[in-house]
Amino acid sequence: MKKICVIFLFLSGCASHTYYYPNIPKDYAVSEVTEKEKSEVSISVEASLVNIQQYELREEWKKNTARFLKEELNKSGLFKRVRFALPSEKSDFHIHFSFFEGGTSQEDRLNAAIIFGYTLGAIPVTVHNTSDVVMTIYYKGIEIYSLVAPHYNRIWIWTPLIVFLPITIPLNWPDKTRYIRYFLWQIEQNKLYNPSYFISQRQ
Amino acid sequence: MEDVNREMKLRNLYLIFLLTGCQSNNFIDWYEAELTLTPRVLTKTEVKVIETLRYQEKIKSLTDQGYVIVGTSMFKGGWEPRYLAVEAAMQYGATVVVITSKTVGSVTQNYNVTVPRENVGVYRGSNGSHGTFIGVSAQNVSGSYSFDLLEQKATFLAKKDNEQ
């Protein structure tokens, strides 16, 4: 039993987390939209990734993120069809996602890793990540709506923090894909899946 | 269970403020107040951040909807994480932050970190004796990264009923 406990503690890591992310109502579920209300939408993705300097890795990151977004928007049932498009070749109804990933600099991350590794976790180190996702909705080439989903998390790594793990990591530890639910919630609330309706409501 | 989760979230929020207390926040450092609002406790869900290229139009549309400008921030630098704008908004009682940014250049930063390197070697004596030795020396790891330099403008707004 003791062995299992020790293994569990080591598998869970020696870290403590603090975070910030945009909240959505707990009971939120995308509601049904009639086929008549749905529209076809094109999407594009661009990213500024300070901590990923290699071109191949950046492209891989963008590709995976774009696929993920397309899948999630399709799954939401709010749109008739979702397809990729270059920002210069966007359709009448277009959603552009810009990602700004940042946080602790590479130099400081390296320093933290060295300190932690060589002292076997005796000296606490900390790194933080920030991620801002900007969703901009265009209709007939004009920006009609935009919103930011900011995300932040800080990780403290120190061996004695093992004991605080159950307190500092709640069960609903946010994953970085949470922003898409925040955007879908806003799209639905503002009836942005039907841009002409959205515009007519504002006039 | 819900109460426990809520308490945990609150605790984490306090911790963020505690931990970010010594971190600079350009939205606060360059803040210029237009008016002071009645202190009100805002939750992070109440603050909406809008990033737009149609900055003036967006502000006008919000003021037409009954919002008032609480203050503004303007600065040049790397991308300022937008959770810091939420923090600033909560401090000044604003519920909407409209931000615009324009790239004006890029900056390349070089770094050089000294790391320990272990040296292991084998020696052979002239009389046929041999053995190994272990030592530690320093090694430099260098690299560089670049980021865009941006002009960033933010306007903090709140509903008129919150005005003092």
Question: Can you summarize the main beta sheet of chain A?
Answer: 6 strands, mixed
Number of strands of chain B: 5
| Element-by-element helix/strand order of chain B | HHEEHEHEE
Low-confidence stretches of chain A: 5-13
Could you give the order of strands across the largest sheet of chain A?
1-6-5-4-2-3
Write down the CATH class of chain A: Alpha Beta
Shape of chain A: elongated
Interface with most residues = A-B, 38 and 40 residues
Largest sheet of chain B at a glance?
5 strands, mixed
- What's the helix-strand series of chain A? HEEHEEHEEHHH
Q: Assign the CATH architecture of chain A.
A: 2-Layer Sandwich
Tell me the domain tally of chain A. 1
Q: What value does the average pLDDT of chain A take? A: 81
CATH topology name of chain A: Double Stranded RNA Binding Domain
What's the alpha carbon Rg of chain B, rounded to whole Å? 26 Å
What would you note in describing this structure?
The complex is a heterodimer of chains A (203) and B (164). Chain A contains six helices and six strands, in the order H-E-E-H-E-E-H-E-E-H-H-H. Chain A has 203 residues and is α/β, with parallel strands linked by helices. Chain A has one domain (13-24, 32-202): Double Stranded RNA Binding Domain (2-Layer Sandwich), CATH 3.30.160. Chain A has a six-stranded mixed β-sheet. The longest helix of chain A is centred in the first third of the chain and has 22 residues, at 55-76. Chain A is elongated. The termini of chain A are far apart. Chain B is built from four helices and five strands; from the N terminus they run ααββαβαββ. By secondary structure, chain B is an alpha+beta fold. Chain B has two domains: 2-110 and 146-162, no CATH class; 112-142, no CATH class. In chain B, strand 4 and strand 5 (130-159) form a beta hairpin. In chain B, strands 1-3-5-4-2 form a five-stranded mixed β-sheet, with helices on both faces. Helices cover 26% and strands 47% of the residues of chain B. The chains are: A alpha/beta (203), B alpha+beta (164). Chains A and B meet through strand 1, strand 4, helix 3, strand 5 and strand 6 of A and helix 1, strand 2, helix 4, strand 4 and strand 5 of B.
